[in-house]
Each structure stands twice: as C-alpha cells, then as structure tokens.
Design a protein that fits this description.
heterodimer; A: 786 residues; five-stranded mixed sheet; 57% strand; globular; B: 278 residues; eight-stranded mixed sheet; 16 strands
Chain lengths: 786, 278
C-alpha cells in the first residue's frame, strides 16, 4: 500500500488540524456506546510494595469473569469496566507474589495495589498464577520485554551490564559488530531504530566509540523492544522501537546502591521526597582508567584522556489521585584525547517533563515535553594551529497521548506529537593563528508532526483486532537555502527561504494493524501489517556506531524512507505458562534507503546531499523463540533464519547484493540459574553466519603499490561468529555481591575484520589478514545496595 | 573528505583500536578463497610542468593471490595526449607497455586529453594542470613515541593560494627503503584547502623508524586537480583498509578514465625541496 503523499502543499499544521476532528468524532461515537447500564469502572495503579515503583505490564484478572482483565500501562495505571457485582481480583506481576482481593463493585472504584516481590528461595514451588499468558493473548507481536533481572545476570564484556548488548540476543536483532552497541532489527539499518529514554529520542546511544551504550542499567526499570507490528503511538523510524523507562525512585526509604567494575564505577541514590507521594532517583557512572594515565611520567600519556560519564536523574510527585508529574534528565559525555593526534568529545543531553492525568476513571492522559541534544566535537591539530569541528542535532518535542478504556473488549489510544528539529551539519571554529578558517554550514530546521489513533477491540470472543493509523508530516523550514543538482552532482540551481517558510513537506499515512486469534487457552495465531516512515537519515562513514555520525533531514534532494512489514506468528505456552514459545515469519520492504558515492566526503560539506545515492532493500525471515521467564532456571533459546538484500542503481552496477547485516543463521542461547541463595550462574552462547563483505577478485600495480581490484559488493562472507560467555554472582550477605564473568570463554578467534595487504618480506605476494578483537577476557565487578 | 580531516578521522579509528582494544586484539594471516576477475587494463599516465618526456604505462590486472612482479604489459596500443592549445602528441612505445611523449611541453593552466586505443577498446581521460605552489620550508622534528618508536614529524610548509579548490599530493623521495607493508609506504600524502583556504599550510607527515640523523629527504609538492585528488584519496581507502576495519564497503578508486579502465591520468605541477634530518 502506497498511501504516502509527496507534496509541497500546505504548511505542516493544516493537515494535522484536518485530522483532529476525525479523531474527535470517532471518540464521540464510541463513548456514546459505552454508557451501558449496570457497568462500573475499577481503575487505579499497581505498585511495588517495597519501594513504591509503578509496575509496568502488571495484570489485574477478575477471577469470576473468564478471560477478563486489564494490564497496567507504562505508568502503572489500569482501568477495567465490568458489570457490577462481587468479585475476586488477582493482581499479578512476574517475580511478585499474587495479590488476591475481594471487592464489591456497586460504583466506580479506584485502587492502589501494592505487590510484594517474591524472594528466590531454594526448593520453592512456583505458584502458577504468577505467570502470565499475555504473550499468547495480547495483540502485541514481534515485541520483547527484558527483565532487568535478566540484564543484570547476563554476562557481558568487561562486566559492564548493557541493555543494548542484551537485546542483541533476541531473535530478529543482530549486532553491528563484536562488542558494539549498534544493532540491526529485521534487516533494517543502524539508523532505523527509535531509541527512547523516558520518551526522549537518543541520537547516539554509544559511549567509548560504540563499545558501551549510554544506558546505565542501575537507573533502568523497563525495556521493551518492538521489531514488528509497531503500534501507532510510535513513529519516525522504520525498523524498531526501543522504549526505555528509568526508575521512579523509592517512595518509602532512602537507599544507595552501586558498584565498581574493571571499566566504571556506579552510584545510585534514591528516596522519597514526601513518603508515598513523591520520590527521586539520581544515578551516575564514570570510567576511571584515565586516572591511571595521569600517573604516568610520559607527557604524551599523562595528557591522554579517555573517559565517559553519565548521569540520570528523575523526580516524581503525586498530586492527588488523578495527577502525577515526572521530571527526568540524562547527561552523558565522552572525552577522548591523544595529544596532537585526536581530541574527540561527544554526548547526549535529554530532559523530559511528564504529566499523567486521569479523566474520570476510564481516560488516562499523558502530556510530555522532551528535549534531546547530541553534540560532537573533533579537535584537530596541535597547539596554536588547532581548530574544532562540531556537529549535532537538537529536538524539542511535545506530545499528548490518551488512552480510553471503554470496556473490557475495547480500548482506544490516540494522540498528537510535534517535534521541532534543529540540525547542525557542521562548523569549524578556528583561532587567529589556526591553520583553518572558521566556517559554519547553515543550520537546518524541520517540523515533524504526527497524529494517531488506534483501537483495540474483541469483535468475537478470542479474536482481537488492533487497527490504527498514524498520519505524519515533515516540513523542512527556513531560514536556509536549497541546492539542486544534476546527475553528475553539480549544482544547477540555488533557492533561498526566509525564516519560518516551508521549503519542502512530506506527508505519510502509516496504517498499523494487528490481530490475534486464540486457538485455545494456550495457543494463538497473530498477524500484523505496518507501514513506517522515517524523515531523518544518518550519514556515517563506519559500519558501526560512531560519534561522528551525522543526522540529516529529508529535503528536496533526500526523500523519506518508507517500510512496509507483514508478519505472522504462532504462539504456544506450555506447562501452565512456564514455557513460552513462538514462531514468527516476516517480510519487510524498505524504500529510499541511503548509501554513498565512493569516497563521499561527509564532513563540513555543503553539497553532501549530492553524494548520497538512493535504493531499496528487503528482508524476510523466520524467528523461533522458546523462553522461560520464571523459576530457578530461566532464559531463552532464539533462532533466526533471514535474508536481507539491497539494490541501488548506482552501486554494484545496479545488481542486487546482500546487505552487510544479511546473516542467514543467528542463534542465541541464554540461561540463568539460581543455584542457591548465595550463588547465581548464567551463560550465553551466540552463533551467527558471517557478515557479507567485499573482497578483491584481482589486483594490479599502481605506482609500485599492489592495489586490490573489486568486482562485486558484499560478494563474500566472513567466517561464522560464535562465542560463549559465563558469569557467576556470589552474594556477600544481603547487601552486596561479587560478579565474576568470562567473555569468549573458549577463546574463539572470531574475525572482526579481514583485510588484504602485500607481504612484509616479499612485496610481490599478497595475503589476507584477520583481526580478532576480543579473545578470552575475564572480569570482576563489585556491587552493593544499601 | 579533506585530507587533513580524513587523516584525523582515520586517526580516531586508529585510536579506537589502539586505546580501547590494543590490549586484546590480535592479527593473523588466514587463507581465503577468492574469485578471479577477467584481466582489466591498467593505465598510469602523467603530464607535469617539468621537461618531458612524459610516461604512460599500460598493464593488466591479475589474480589476487598470484605472486607477480608485474602483470602483462599492454603492447602496441595507440596512445595520444593532446592539450587545449592544439598540440597532439602520439606516444612511442619505448619498452613493452611503456609509452613516451616526444613533443609535448607541460604547462600550468592547460587541460590535457589522454586517449588510449588498445585491444579493440578506447579509453579517454581529461586532467587540468593547476599552477605550481612553492614549498616555503621543510621542518623535521625528531621525537620518541610512547611505544619507543623513533619518529620524525616532517612539516611541509607552503602558502595556499587565495582562491578555493586547491589539491595537493606530497611525495617523499628518500635514500632509505620504506617497507610496502608500512602505512607510510602505502599511503598517499594528500591535502586540500577545504577548511584552510588561503592560509599557510603546515602538513605533517609522520615518518616512523626508517630514518637516521644525516639522512636526506626530498619532498615533491604536487599541485593536482580535483579528479586526481579524488583518485588518490579513494585509492588510499583501499590501500589502508586495515587501519579502519569498520569502514564502508571498499570499492575501486574513482578514476577519470572512461570505459571501465583502472588507473589514472594526472596532470600536475611540482615544486621540490630537500632536507637533511638532524
């Protein structure tokens, strides 16, 4: 379906306004039908009894009404409208004791349910009621929620827990490279992942040149990854959504927790502002290797710096039963200096303000204002001739999301969103004695608007449909100039636009649809179709996450990217929901993908758009998952078979070639075992087909140098990649633990890169050389919690 | 990417490898099965502002792992170079695959047309010779790296002309052999004025380990046109791919030759200076 419209049409706001009455009228229709007799609403929040944290995705089940229940949203809110009567409610959440409560529903009622965490004790029989069959019954598919308990148990490189590395173990997600935080979702590019931290987009999620993510696991409460059937409330990226929510902070007591690893030290403080009404959380992390560099007597080494830090802070306050406000912020910075060679600084800053309000008992609203900023600075040259190159992107984002819980079989979600983007494509700041000249490329401005509506309902018992539409619009705004190029990339026209003038507008209708049919109590089939649009593009001269990566807007020369994805799946739970299993098949078609002309100069280049080439890509595959969430032994086995190809008229002579991330087989085995109250073990094994790579098919002499000759893009394969990681956690009493981990336990010499060179001793000979990044690496981390 | 910038961006990747990973990473020679492409014609052709004759070399590509000192020359080709003043020089084959001009005099500001007819195919290329930019000074500073390596930092200092769009290649002529495996042996030293137009340029060339005090180094500063710069810059990318293992898919250098030929045709002016290392 190609419903998107390209137009120079009316300014951005007009169409959104046209759409709003449509949404409003839909709402009126349904609320008319909702006022049935004898029905009452029970609503409220579900919390952790120990610290008051809202629980996301907890479940309220009405025992007397078969298949009737509600789950809590991202703020712990739930609402359920059922006929009046006497009921037993079961409130359940994974890892918590089931709460049973008898109620008389003779009027609308509000509850706060507080669940107590279930300690892991040896030999305990797990109550079957705590396991949810949501994975089978909900319309959500191609989605995975990570338990922070799992993230904290799974071994990672140098003991630094990292959610971006943990999600790479899920089916449909592929790592961008050894130890790298970049990932591909179902064959999509590195820039096609929407990464949200408390609803603020993160434009560069990596520290330390991509080896660690900017997300400090200590500060994180909930992580959800969606690679298909993306709901209408998310937009702006083609391939996936990673929705990360930070801890609200302990409502009951003050606490401090933290740890010291080989790379970084962490500290988190939290506590009530007013007991049970408001709380705060502040969490920091910093690497400390540079402290040792300072001790060196070598002047080059002690002026070298290599560190990063990040800081998460959050506060929330409950204003009565109906309102709650949240303020949260993130600040992270990397610094890499090697005197006279390089000086790099980069970092993200985000701020989020949210206001939850409940209208009546059935209407939940969240109003959010976020700010995101990514800045990159490269200090070039030495002493007086030095100059700085900077680039970045800045967003101000406002949105209103509403959820209307009409009745047990019908729920609406709708909202509006407006983002004002400021792109800083690059500037050079030079002093009077610098070898460079100060120059600043024109900033670019864009307004990205969207409105959405989704309706989930159950037309027949056991058959659920979620249909929705996201209407999005992107307008490149003045002040600024546009350049028009001929086929050789030479400028043929220039046009200037004043402040606030619309340069170019793109609008898209993005239908989102998913349906679930329950075959029986434990199994279901699901299907989904989604269209997604992406108006921002990442220019990168690297295949991994890199600080110099540059975000650019769609323009008169660069079209938005579009994707259509169809997925179907079969879901079955075994042993009273103890085991979850699923098979999903997907096909995704991607249009207007971006690549570069050979040797494209992406930095400080006012004509960079002339160096981009446009093409298409498609990916299809089958994903298998068996997962056990609870019990002493937990974990999952995932297997993905997939194929991803691309075609660009100006690359590879127009022939189809496998995408770099085309990996036929991808296997992850994750096991976590609680041996006793003091010992916990975990192991991860991964296997994947090697990347598609370009190798030479010949060589020739130029200027006494043997030069490789290439005939086809990505015509070869790297060797298969596999690795085993092990981890053991030893509890030193109630409040602290020691974690031992081994990365690459059987010391597999995986190929990070293969390059070709002339032989050292005989320059007439050539050879292939494999670079292995990480052999076996043990590490140790100390964690505490007071 | 401007040379100064790309060098730093490459340095960033190098530092990524060096600082974060050097402690762990390792390299080894492996065996890889490669396809064999059909032989392609390879052209190396230059015109300079120095007295001729100017040379055009024609050879063919070979299989990647077949060791060879040289690949078969292309003989009996019809090679001409014409300038925009109406002079056309038909080159003579003085050795198999090596062709010389006889009447052409290279001069700055002129545009040259190369035409090669060989084995039933015709190849063309155009290059314009920029004005000569003189080297003001050469400075060589000796230092010791933290890993113990002896390094000479050679600074080539010259004044970039006021109009934008100058491209340079620096060529070292030394008495000491530089290993073809070393980065210095393979990489072309390039510079452009994208960020530094009209300023005094001090381009650093790091020379590791190969030199002793008293050694002589000649530096040629070649003023090249944009297409030649683009060629050498993209050639650098494939010659130094080991330094940036995460760079995008390698591709054949961007050549100014038509019809799928490999190699380049460059018209350039040259200024040379000598320094004795202290």
């Amino acid at each position: 379906m190609h419903s998107h419209a390209h137009s120079d049409g009316p300014p951005a706001g007009t169409r959104i306004l046209l759409l709003l009455p449509l949404i409003a009228s839909l709402c009126l229709d349904v609320s008319g039908g909702a006022t049935a007799q004898e029905k009452f609403t029970l609503s409220g929040t579900i919390k952790n009894a120990e610290n008051g944290e809202a629980l996301i995705g907890a479940y309220v089940v009405v025992k007397e009404l078969k298949n009737t229940g509600a789950s809590s949203n991202a703020y712990g809110f739930f609402s359920l409208t059922i006929p009046g009567g006497h009921y037993t409610l079961l409130v359940q959440y994974l890892g918590f004791r089931v709460l049973a409560d008898s109620i008389d529903l003779t009027r609308d009622r509000t509850f706060i349910f507080a669940l107590t965490p279930q300690p892991i004790t040896v030999g305990e029989v797990v109550v079957s009621g705590e396991r949810s069959d949501k994975n089978v019954t909900s319309t959500v598919m191609s989605s995975n929620k990570l338990e922070m308990r799992e993230v904290k148990s799974i071994p990672v490189l140098l003991g630094e827990k990292d959610i971006l590395k943990t999600i790479q173990l899920l089916p449909g997600v592929q790592s961008a490279g050894e130890g790298n935080t970049g990932y591909y979702a179902r064959g999509g590019g590195l820039d096609q992942n929407l990464i949200l931290l408390d609803e603020a987009p993160i434009y560069n999620p990596s520290h330390a040149l991509g080896y660690l993510s900017v997300f400090n696991s200590d500060a994180i409460k909930d992580v959800t990854l969606i690679t298909g059937g993306i709901p209408a409330e998310y937009g702006g990226r083609l391939s996936s959504v990673l929705d990360i929510r930070t801890n609200d902070g302990n409502m009951k007591d003050y606490g401090a927790s933290g740890g010291v690893g080989l790379l970084a030290a962490r500290l988190t403080l939290q506590g009530p502002i007013v007991k049970d009404e408001g709380s705060f959380m502040i969490s920091g992390r910093r690497t400390y290797a540079d402290i040792f560099l300072k001790l060196s007597s070598d002047t080059t080494i002690n002026r070298t710096s290599l560190y990063f830090y990040d800081l998460n802070a959050k506060a929330n306050y409950t204003l009565g039963e109906k309102d709650r406000i949240y303020l949260s912020g993130y600040l992270g910075k990397d610094n890499l200096d090697y005197p006279d060679v390089i000086g790099l600084r980069w970092g993200n800053t985000t701020a989020t303000a949210r206001w939850n309000h409940v209208f009546g008992d059935q209407f939940f609203s969240n109003t959010t204002v976020t700010f995101s900023d990514y800045q990159y600075t490269n200090i070039v040259g030495a002493s007086t001739s030095q100059y700085e190159i900077t680039s970045g992107i800045k967003d101000v984002n406002g949105k209103i999301d509403l959820q209307y819980f009409m009745n047990v079989t019908s729920m609406f979600k709708f909202g509006v969103n407006a983002i004002y983007h400021t792109f800083m494509p690059g500037s050079v700041t030079a002093g009077p004695t610098s070898s460079a000249n100060s120059v600043s490329l024109e900033h670019r401005y864009a307004l990205e608007n969207a409105a959405y509506l989704a309706h989930e309902f159950e037309p027949l018992p056991g058959f659920k449909i979620n249909y929705g539409l996201r209407a999005s619009m992107f307008s490149l705004m003045g002040p600024g100039h546009t350049l028009t190029y001929d086929e050789y990339g030479d400028i043929i026209d220039t046009a200037g636009f004043g402040s606030g003038k619309v340069i170019k507008t793109y609008a898209s209708f993005e239908p989102r649809f998913s349906a679930t049919y329950l075959i029986d109590e434990v199994s279901s089939v699901k299907g989904s179709y989604t269209r997604t649009a992406q108006y921002l593009h990442l220019l990168s001269n690297s295949t991994t996450a890199n600080p110099s990566d540059l975000w650019v807007p769609s323009s008169n020369n660069v079209k938005p990217q579009y994707a259509d994805q169809v997925a179907v799946g079969y879901y079955r739970n075994f042993a009273e929901n103890e085991f979850e299993s699923s098979v999903e098949l997907y096909y995704k078609n991607m249009m207007n993908l971006i690549d570069y002309k050979n040797g494209a100069d992406l930095q400080i280049n006012p004509t960079v758009e002339s160096l981009l080439v446009s093409g298409r890509g498609w990916s299809y595959g089958a994903e298998f998952l068996i997962r056990k969430r609870a019990g002493r032994l937990s974990g999952w086995v995932g297997y993905t078979w997939s194929k991803t190809q691309e075609q660009f008229p100006l690359i590879n002579r127009g022939a189809v070639f496998p995408a770099r991330q085309d990996r036929t087989h991808d296997i992850s085995v994750v096991t976590i075992y609680d041996l006793s109250a003091t010992w916990n073990f975990s192991a991860v094994w991964v296997y994947n087909t090697g990347n598609a790579v370009t190798f030479p098919a010949g060589n020739y002499w130029i200027d006494n140098r043997l030069v490789p000759y290439y005939t086809e893009r990505n015509g070869y394969r790297m060797p298969a990649y596999h690795r085993l990681d092990l981890s053991a956690t030893w509890k030193l009493g109630e409040r602290s633990n020691l974690n031992f981990s081994i990365y690459n336990a059987y010391d597999r010499m995986n190929a990070y890169a293969i390059y070709f060179r002339q032989n050292r001793t005989d320059p007439t000979k050539t050879e292939a050389v494999q670079i292995t990044l990480f052999p076996i690496i043990p590490s140790i981390t100390y964690n505490f919690n007071y | 990417m401007s040379s100064s910038f790309s060098r730093h961006s490459r340095a960033a990747k190098l530092a990524a490898a060096a600082l974060a990973l050097a402690a762990f990473s390792c390299q080894r020679v492996i065996s890889v099965d490669l396809n064999n492409a059909n032989p392609q014609m390879v052209t190396e052709a230059i015109v300079t502002d120095q007295p001729g004759p100017y040379t055009v070399s024609l050879s063919t590509s070979g299989n990647y792992f077949t060791p060879s000192l040289y690949f078969p020359p292309v003989t009996h080709a019809f090679v001409t170079i014409a300038d925009n003043l109406g002079v056309t020089d038909t080159l003579k084959e003085i050795l198999p695959g090596t062709y010389h001009t006889s009447v052409l005099h290279g001069g700055a500001g002129r545009t040259y047309n190369l035409r090669v007819v060989a084995e039933g195919k015709e190849y063309d290329a155009i290059s314009t010779m920029p004005p000569r930019v003189p080297i003001d000074t050469l400075v060589a500073l000796h230092s010791r790296e933290s890993d113990g390596d002896q390094v000479y930092n050679l600074y080539v200092i010259f004044k970039d002309p006021p109009e934008p769009g100058n491209y340079y290649r620096m060529k070292l002529r030394v008495s000491v052999p530089i290993s073809p495996d070393s980065i210095d042996g393979r990489r072309y030293h390039l510079y452009n004025d994208k960020l530094t137009n009209g300023n005094e340029a001090a381009v650093r060339i790091r020379m590791r380990n190969y030199f002793q005090p008293g050694d002589t180094v000649w530096v040629d500063l070649l003023s090249i046109d944009k297409t030649s710069y683009d060629y050498f810059n993209t050639l650098n990318n494939v010659l130094t791919s080991d330094r940036s293992p995460t760079s995008l898919a390698p591709a054949n250098p961007n050549t100014n030759l038509t019809n799928g030929a490999l190699g380049y045709f460059a018209a350039f002016s040259v200024d040379s200076k000598m320094i004795i290392l202290q």
